[in-house]
Amino acid sequence: MKELLTYIINELVRHPDEVKLSEVTGDRTVVFELRCNREDIGKIIGKNGKTVSAIRTILSTIAASQGRRAILEVVDE
Length: 77
Known about the structure:
With 77 residues, the protein is α+β, with helices and mostly antiparallel strands. It has a single domain (2-74), classed as GMP Synthetase, Chain A, domain 3. The protein is 45% helix and 25% strand. The chain has helices at residues 2-12, 38-45, 50-65, and strands at residues 20-25, 29-35, 69-74. Strand 1 (20-25) and strand 2 (29-35) form a beta hairpin. The radius of gyration is 12 Å and the shape is globular. The protein starts with a helix and ends with a strand.
């Protein structure tokens, strides 16, 4: 899951070397925290949040097939 998420995000951003994706795993839930360059946050979110929504849909589908739940949080530092 993390590898696919990293691949998708790195293809969207201008500074892929600054992407930091951390994973917090619980019993049935996985939370991914995404940190990246301020310039790239808009590209991740997209117009009206459509891009991040699509990424979350893909992530949720993969997690559901494994009987889990996945959450993606975009952290603005």
